[in-house]
From TrEMBL:
Alphabetized CDD domains for the sequence: CYCLIN_RB
Annotated transmembrane regions: none
Subcellular location, record wording: Cytoplasm; Nucleus
Family: Belongs to the retinoblastoma protein (RB) family.
The protein, known as: Retinoblastoma-associated protein
Listed GO MF terms: RNA polymerase II transcription regulatory region sequence-specific DNA binding
Length: 730
């Protein structure tokens, strides 16, 4: 409460807990301590008394000895809990020790009195009006001695040698997940430096204008800004913690920059030089690197689905810190992911979610360069007045664009110019037309074209998901709703200013249903919308009506959306409706995950995937068996497991688990194995569980039955929803 302004910073809170443990460990009698803490305290005491007699020690010597004791205990704690030593030491000496002094506690005076601490906590509690954390001290199971017998603890699969001691699997917790992710990031960046490498220096020297000095100055100036903003958000005593995280981000920034340049080494030196001298590119790349670091520290195991609550440091916090436009940040995300193969699946998903947030609302805020680009696109001489032609919607989305393509378009390479001034060292963002000979027309903006393609794809996927929940009985309406939705984004893009993509989607759905006499109320739409992932009630409760005036989505539809698109909407009720927009091509994600399921060659359509773990064996990280959830049974193919009889026992166990399967079906939990395994027979899914080939194993049959159970439950749920809607209609 004293150190942190936001107590939901899980990592710093845990590090402060370690600091408290250090304080009590070093003041406890060695006889009370267990190993390895007993040895840590006694070793320093023995070494200290051997160096200098107590009477001969001066104050500086005693202080040095105390620091040695603190450091030794911190080292042991960090090793036991997989924490970064430098970070915990920094928190201890810059935040915890000053905290002790501020409340009048001196380490040499022994343990503090509970009554004194409780009185000081009362003052803090009354000041902040937060929950009284002391309530958790009374009869809380977490703080009670562990009385669970060892026989009840889950264990790893039995090894070949039955006499060998069994290993216990530590349960996965938010803190352990956060510590594991942080340790992986630090290990990846151990080989990187916070200065440009020799390879980067070589690239810099080959530029028309050497960008080295401007890059170093930019990194230094942004560090001061970041430390200040971090301290304001977290706590003034945490400025150095912010500095540590910034330095990790700088290491990742240089690492990714070098990887990017190696992958596009064949681009012309003109683009090479322009990109490395582009201020917006460097700020975006550094911001993306720091966002990865901040998200790694801010995420836990329960947040991997992307539904976690936002904190003060959540995206788009970094954009505000660096005064960076969301549209400019979007340009670097895809190149960043491709250039850094060590990113975890969770972090790739996080960056992809950041990209989605930009496309759905952040890029459409007033002041965004996106609107200038769209305006320029419509004003181009001889060009069609649309950011992206609808004819390209059903074409596969190309993902071979480089950062230079997005940050420097529509700049032309000098090879294509008859003449022109030498390249400038200043930034040339998309919103500023490039200097080209008068005989040439301005080029189409690559960044705008790609942005609109991605927006169309995201918009259709959102619409399709919502449509399936609400209007699956009216499949003929989906192309009509999509056409109106796409028309609005393309021709009435001003409706998106300071608004959200989903607001236009819901209005399009309501408008088409209205003219087609399909009874679908806004109340039903928003109720279904709330069930979609990554949604917020503010999206339909607070919509911009006019300048600084907000109201509900139904008011927006009546006063703004319908007034703007009334003529177009009424055309869908006529005998000559508008030409339907093509359905966007649905590609696979451009971001390849290292642990994506892979098909077994000639293996009856069996798909396998590695265990979900933030660590890789190739990098020398912790074995994923220690990360296995306690509710799973681990079969590790590739390690010594024993004879085939053990696999037969697994099949037998699956066959005898009907009761467990029924219970899991009742709580509507999708069977976990089905996420990784799929069985097809001659292209048809055996979903009904009624037919099985003779050569199918019991395991395959059981999986088919589990699939059937899930399918029936989904149909039943859908029918129940339709019955409810029908009742309302009556």
């Amino acid at each position: 409460g004293k150190v942190l302004q936001v107590e939901d910073d899980l990592v710093i809170s845990f590090q402060l807990l370690l600091c408290v443990l250090v304080y009590f460990i070093k003041l406890s009698p060695p006889a009370m301590l267990k190993e390895p803490y007993k040895s840590a305290v006694t070793a320093v005491a023995v070494n200290g008394s051997a160096r200098t007699p107590r009477r001969g020690q001066n104050r500086n010597t005693r202080t040095s000895k105390q620091i040695d004791t603190d450091t030794k205990v911190i080292e042991v704690l960090c090793k036991e809990h997989d924490c970064n030593l430098d970070e915990v030491k920094n928190v201890y000496f810059t935040s915890f020790i000053p905290f002790l002094s501020s409340i009048g506690i001196v380490a040499s005076n022994g343990l503090p009195e509970v009554e004194v601490l409780s009185k000081q906590y009362d003052e803090l509690y009354l000041k902040n009006k937060d929950i009284d954390a002391r309530l958790f001290l009374d009869h809380d199971e977490t703080l009670q001695p562990d009385v669970i017998p060892c026989s009840q603890l889950e264990r790893t699969p039995v090894k070949n040698n039955p006499d060998e001691e069994l290993n216990f699997i530590l349960p996965q917790t938010p803190v352990r997940a956060a510590m594991n992710n942080i340790q992986q990031l630090i290990m990846i960046l151990n080989s990187a430096t916070d200065k440009p490498s020799d390879t980067l220096i070589m690239y810099f020297n080959n530029c028309t204008v050497n960008p080295k000095d401007s890059i170093l100055k930019r990194v230094e100036s942004l560090e001061h800004i970041f430390k200040k903003k971090f301290a304001e958000a977290v706590g003034q005593g945490c400025a150095e913690i912010g500095s540590q995280r910034y330095k990790l981000g700088v290491r990742l920034y240089y690492r990714v920059m070098e990887s990017m340049l190696k992958s596009v080494i064949l681009i012309t030196y003109f683009l090479h030089s322009k990109l490395l001298n582009d201020n917006v590119f460097h700020t975006s790349l550094l911001a993306c690197a720091i966002e990865v670091v901040m998200a790694t520290y801010g995420r836990s195991a329960s947040q991997s689905d992307g539904t976690s609550a936002e904190t003060d440091l959540s995206f788009p916090w970094i954009l505000n810190v660096f005064d960076l436009k969301a549209f400019d940040f979007y340009k670097v995300i895809e190149s960043f992911i491709k250039a850094e193969p060590s990113l975890t699946r969770e972090m790739i998903k996080h960056l992809e979610r950041c990209e989605h947030r930009i496309m759905e609302s952040l890029a459409w805020q007033s002041g965004s360069p996106l609107f200038d680009l769209i305006k320029q696109s419509k004003e181009r001489e001889g060009q069609t007045d649309q950011p992206e032609p609808t004819s390209t919607l059903n074409l596969p989305l190309q993902h071979n664009h480089t950062a230079a393509d997005l940050y420097l378009s529509p700049v032309r390479s000098p090879k294509k110019k008859a003449s022109g001034p030498p390249p400038s060292a200043s930034s040339t963002p998309d919103a500023q037309p490039a200097v080209t000979p008068q005989t040439q027309k301005a080029q189409k903006s690559t960044s705008l074209s790609l942005f609109y393609k991605k927006v169309y794809l995201l918009a259709y996927l959102r619409l399709h998901t919502l449509f399936f929940r609400l209007l699956s009985d009216h499949p003929d309406l989906e192309p009509l709703i999509w056409t109106l939705f796409q028309h609005t984004l393309q021709n009435e893009y001003e409706l998106m200013r300071d608004r959200h993509l989903d607001q236009i989607m819901m209005c399009s759905m309501y408008g088409i249903c209205k003219v087609k006499n399909v009874d679908l109320r806004f109340k039903i739409i928003v109720s279904a919308y709330k069930e979609l992932p990554n949604t917020n009630q503010e999206t339909f409760k607070r919509v911009l009506i006019r300048e600084e005036q907000y109201d509900s989505i139904i008011v927006f539809y009546n006063l703004v959306f319908m007034q703007k698109l009334k003529t177009n909407i009424l055309q869908y009720a006529s005998n000559r409706p508008p030409t339907l927009s093509p359905i966007p091509h649905i590609p696979r994600s451009p971001y390849q995950f290292s642990n994506s399921p892979r098909r077994v060659p000639a293996g009856n359509n069996i798909y396998i995937s590695p265990l979900k773990s933030p660590y890789k064996f190739s990098d020398g990280f912790q074995s994923p068996t220690k990360m296995t959830p306690r509710s799973r049974i681990l079969v590790s193919i590739g390690e010594s497991f024993g004879t085939s009889e053990k696999f037969q026992k697994i099949n037998q166990m699956v066959c005898n688990s009907d009761c467990q399967l029924k219970r899991s079906a009742e709580v509507s939990a999708a069977p976990k194995p089905l996420k990784r395994l799929r069985f097809d027979i001659e292209g048809q899914d055996e979903a009904d569980g009624s037919k099985h080939l003779p050569q199918e194993s019991k395991f395959q049959q059981k999986l088919a039955e589990m699939t059937s159970t899930r399918t029936r439950m989904q149909k039943q749920k859908l029918n129940d929803g339709n019955d409810t809607s029908a009742s309302e209609k009556k």
